[in-house]
Amino acid sequence: MDEAQRELIRRAREGDGWAFEQLVSEYDGLILALARDMVGNLPDAQDVYQEAKGLACRHGRRRSQRPGPIHSNSSTWSAQARQPEAFTT
Prior knowledge:
By secondary structure, the protein is mostly helical. It has four helices and no strands. The longest helix has 23 residues, at 17-39. It starts with a helix and ends in an 8-residue tail after the last helix. Mean pLDDT is 76; it is low at 66-72.
């Protein structure tokens, strides 16, 4: 991870929507393809993708408000985002 990506992560955690979108854009194709493989069609995969993106955004905001170390690895975010609530309920 380079310094620019670390800065985007820091800014996204502080609520900068543009920075969050930049991070998401790096992984959106991967997440959408994985969701399509999981649900079998593009329309449902797009719904899953939106759910995962929303969860990642909410999760990032909650983590930024917690004291202590914050894990700042966008590939970890990507892995977590691939498991939206839709698949766990």
